[in-house]
Amino acid sequence: MSDATALEQADAMIEKAWGCPIDVLETLAVRRPVEDPLLRSAMHIRSSLVVSNNAVAVHQDRLHALTRPGHVPACYDLERITNSAVDLRVAQTESRTALQAISHVIEAREAVVTADRAPSPSLAQAAVARSAHAPRALGQPPDQPAPSATVGTTVALPGPRR
Known about the structure:
This protein is an all-alpha fold.
C-alpha cells in the first residue's frame, strides 16, 4: 500500500472501520451527524485530506515540469523549484497529519465500542460481592437488599473518645 495516496489509505481505513463504502458514509455523516459524531469527524478530516492530496499532486506536477530530463533550469527557475519542493513537503506533511488524525478517530471509535460492551462475568461477580457487604441504612429491614456501595465513601466506626 506504499504506492497508495494518503486519501486512498484514509478511505480504506474508514471503510474498514465503519464497514460501508465512502459515498454511503459521506451521506450518513451529513444527514445524521448526531448519531455518529466520530464518523462526522473522520469525514471532516477526510475532506481536508482531499484538499491536501490535490495540493500534493499539483506541486509534484509542477516540480516534475521544472526538473524534467533534458531541461536546463534558468536562474529564475531555481527559486521556483525550491518553492515547489517546499510546498510539496508541506502538502505531504499535511496529508500525513490528516491521515494520522483519522487513525486516532478510528482508535477512539474502537475504544468506545469496547467500552460499551457488557462487563465480564468476573467484574459482575465482584460488584455483587461488594454490594452484599455494603452497610444497611438505619431502619432498613434485613430482608430488603442493601443499597449499592458507592466508591469513596467512608463509614465512621465507633471508637474510644479522647
